[in-house]
Write a structure and sequence with these properties.
Elements: H1 11-26, H2 35-43, E1 48-51, H3 60-68, E2 72-76, H4 80-92, E3 97-100, H5 106-117, E4 123-126, E5 141-146, H6 169-172, E6 178-182, H7 187-196, E7 203-206, E8 214-220, H8 224-233, E9 239-243, H9 247-259, E10 264-267, H10 273-284, E11 290-293, E12 306-311, H11 318-325, E13 335-341, H12 343-352, H13 359-376, H14 382-389, E14 406-412, H15 414-426, H16 433-440, H17 450-453, H18 466-478, E15 482-484, E16 492-494, H19 498-502, E17 509-516, H20 528-545, H21 549-552, H22 555-564, H23 569-572, H24 580-601, H25 625-635, H26 640-647, H27 651-664, H28 669-672, H29 675-688, H30 693-700, H31 706-731
Parallel strand pairs: 1-6, 1-7, 2-4, 2-5, 3-4, 5-6, 8-13, 9-11, 9-12, 10-11, 12-13
Antiparallel strand pairs: 14-17, 15-16
Helix pairs in contact: 1-2, 1-3, 2-3, 12-13, 15-16, 16-18, 20-22, 20-24, 25-27, 26-27, 27-31, 29-30, 29-31
């Protein structure tokens, strides 16, 4: 039988031990996102589901518990590149780790198994199809981590049948905690993961999907090669990935870029295994700056200094796009995601996503593709669209996507709108945008039906180009004067708003011009020459140790060194990424470079400018006149819906007003929600172990409203606040 990791650990001990390991082994002084809560859940031996963005630090959520537990932590991953990357990084940090996969000889695998038997390893990485998984019950296993957990779901964007073999783990190892991790999963996929892995009442954590350091930009695909050249010319010294749909196009584009003087290589599943490995290694070591790849490349690549991701072809769904763009800026520095968009790509992809004999799955895939098309045509903030897709609320303006950075000049387009709407009406709402545009322009194409050529609206838009009509239709769709049906061949249809325009009762404003605001880069406050010297010494160390440079130290760490100029060991320990292990291992070599530079330029340490992150203390919520009015109406016997209508506010706003009084204890919880629901909601809140409404709602289902959950959360917060006040009084 697999041994457990010993008796339960107190929360205080967990926090101190985990934080010590974070600093000592990994060089970071504080946790990010939900890392600390996830680690606490794992250390309490709870099954755990964690959804965190790419670059959000998922691996630490099982690597730190692995160093606290007595036994072996088994990490299951489909990604050979990830295994090697993480094992290299762990070994650099002085942690005993290894992987077993098909790239190794029998002798190499046997040596690793001997280390497992001798209890010399803390982490072992396995592929989901590994036969060794069946033998785990014979070893001292403390934790099982399943990475890329969305691969087990038929509804996920990257289903892998071999993941279904993992369903037996909870049966054969019922007492061993399992943590399932993924960066991209919608509600349907999340539910599928938990059910298929048979996780036992798992704690669920859903972190913010916002990658604020990535700028999202979409441009028309026309003249795509010239646009790619213009984009990468400004980023010659930076690492980037360019994604293509087909193997042939990756090789063709890589060759074209080489002919233009760029260091680029192709990567796709059709290349010989040795060539793929060589190309990947050259990219990881910064000896090649650009990887032109199909989606076979990138998953699990932990390269932190990828500065841009370009999609020269359309991804199949938002999940893939989000995950692939997330390979940029993993070190937190500013990075870019560029999509070359064409609706022709949408139509081409619709043929690829059809699943023969499975109408239900085809419909899901087509809907996801339509959402990707919607993203390509967005007139509103792209970040908001991405976050809303993953059920995360945000503001309407992010300030770091092309839409938010574009100034749009509008003009009266009523007559043009009437021409489009009239054409759609005359064509009986049975055709797509392409046909409508050809009809408007009086095309001689054989696809235009003869009877349509006799209609008086045929050819009334001949004075405008296809692109202009496309833009007008896009504006009409955005403003809901038109809608587009779902399915393989979407058609344009009129809406209730169309009638007023056709009758001349409503003016329509359309886009006249767009001007992208160039955001000035902040003036560099680091020593640029020193940064290059630090990169040179990092490359030298990486070559000696035969690991990628970013595993030695990340770009973000080097940037801090070149900014704050630490002068001694104590100051070096304040630099993010420099833990005790790396100080002992590399500290002197980097200190020598910094010290020599400072002597030459007569510079002093600036470590005093590096302030620790402020912990934001929440201000206590205050009573306001508007809250008081809602409260008074409620006490008079009005329902939430009645108060909302009377005050011309939304129901959710009224709920937030009443939740304030529940938290204060002025309103009893059973006055605002059905008492029979309270216990179930409390249990769901405890399971999700967070303050977000969405995970709790997802767990409870449609029988419970967000308002009811908000009220129970407010009540629990009030109870906690009261308990803390009592403790403060006792301690004072």
């Amino acid at each position: 039988m697999a041994a457990s990791s010993g008796s339960s650990i107190s929360i205080i001990t967990i926090n101190m031990t985990a934080l010590h390991i974070l600093k000592e082994k990994f060089g970071y002084s504080s946790f990010r996102l939900e890392q600390e809560a996830i680690i606490n859940s794992v250390l309490q031996k709870k099954d755990t589901f964690a959804l965190m963005p790419t670059g959000g630090g998922k691996s630490l959520c099982y690597q730190i518990p692995a160093l606290i537990f007595d036994g072996l932590t088994v990490v299951i991953s489909p990604l050979i590149a990830l295994m090697k990357d993480q094992v290299d990084a762990l070994r650099v940090n002085g942690i005993a780790a290894a992987f077993l996969n098909s790239t190794q000889s029998y002798q190499e695998q046997n040596e690793i198994l001997k280390k497992v038997q001798a209890k010399e390893l803390k982490l072992l990485y396995l592929a989901p199809e590994s036969n060794f998984i069946k033998q785990l019950s014979s070893y001292n296993v403390s934790l099982i981590a399943i990475d890329e957990a969305h691969c087990i779901s038929h509804w996920g964007h990257d289903f892998r049948p071999e993941y279904l073999n993992l369903a037996h783990l909870k049966k054969s190892l019922p007492d061993i905690p399992v943590i399932a991790l993924t960066a991209t999963a919608d509600k349907l996929t999340r539910k599928d993961i938990v059910e298929k892995l048979e996780l036992n009442n798992p704690s669920t954590f859903i972190s913010s999907f916002n990658r604020g350091n990535i700028r999202y930009t979409v441009v028309p695909k026309r003249n795509s090669f010239d646009k790619i050249l213009d984009f990468i010319e400004k980023r010659k010294d930076e690492s980037g990935i360019i994604y293509c749909l087909s193997r042939a196009s990756t090789e063709r584009l890589a060759e074209d870029l080489k002919n233009e003087g760029f260091h680029a290589l192709p990567y796709h599943a059709g290349l010989e295994k040795e060539i793929r490995a060589k190309h990947q290694e050259l990219f990881l070591r910064d000896e090649v700056k650009i990887m032109v790849a199909t989606i076979a490349f990138g998953m699990g690549i932990d390269k932190s200094n990828v500065r841009y991701v370009v999609h020269s072809d359309l991804p199949k769904n938002i999940e893939s796009y989000y995950q692939e763009t997330g390979r940029a800026g993993r070190d937190g520095l500013n990075s870019e995601a560029l999509l070359l968009y064409s609706y022709a790509d949408v139509m081409k992809m619709k043929r690829f996503v059809t699943v023969d004999g499975n109408t239900e799955q085809t419909e899901v895939f087509l809907k996801k593709l339509d959402q990707m098309a919607e993203y390509g045509n967005l007139p509103t903030c792209r970040r908001k669209f991405l976050l809303n897709y993953f059920d995360e609320a945000t503001t309407n303006y992010c300030g770091n996507c092309d839409v938010c950075l574009t100034h749009i000049e509008l003009t009266d387009g009523t007559q043009l709108a009437q021409k489009v709407l009239s054409a759609v009406s005359r064509l009986q709402e049975r055709f797509g945008a392409g046909y409508v545009i050809d009809f408007l322009r009086g095309s001689n194409s054989a696809k235009i039906q003869e009877e349509h050529k006799q209609l008086k609206t045929f050819g009334i838009g001949a004075d405008a180009s296809k692109e202009e009509w496309n833009n007008i239709i896009r504006d009409l769709l955005t403003q809901e004067y038109l809608v587009k049906s779902e399915g393989m061949y979407p058609i344009l249809q009129l809406t209730e708003k169309s009638t007023a325009v056709l009758k001349g009762l409503e003016k329509v404003m359309i886009t006249k011009s767009k001007e992208i605001t160039e955001v000035a880069e902040p003036e560099a406050n680091y020593e640029q020459t020193l940064l290059q010297q630090l990169k040179d010494i990092r490359r030298k160390i990486a070559n000696e140790e035969n690991v990628p440079a970013y595993i030695v130290l990340s770009d973000a760490t080097l940037l801090e060194l070149a900014t704050y100029l630490p002068h001694n060991k104590e100051e070096f320990l304040k630099i993010s990424g420099f833990g005790q292990v790396k100080i002992e291992k590399y500290g002197k070599q980097f200190w020598d470079v910094v010290a020599a530079y400072c002597r030459e330029h007569n510079l002093k340490s600036r470590i005093n400018l590096k302030t620790p992150k402020r912990i934001r203390r929440e201000r206590p919520e205050r009573e306001t006149d508007t809250k008081q009015k809602s409260f008074e109406f409620f006490k008079l016997g009005h329902s939430i819906a009645e108060i909302a209508e009377r005050r011309n506010l939304s129901s959710s706003t009224i709920e937030s007003h009443l939740a304030f009084y529940v938290q204060q204890g002025t309103l009893l919880l059973n006055e605002v929600i059905d008492a029979s629901k309270i216990s179930s909601i409390q249990q769901a809140i405890e399971k999700t172990e967070g303050n977000a409404l969405a995970p709790v709602k997802e767990l409870l289902g449609d029988s419970y409203s967000y308002g009811e959950i908000r009220m129970v959360m407010a009540h629990l917060e009030g109870v906690r606040s009261l308990q803390q006040q009592k403790i403060d009084i006792i301690n004072s």
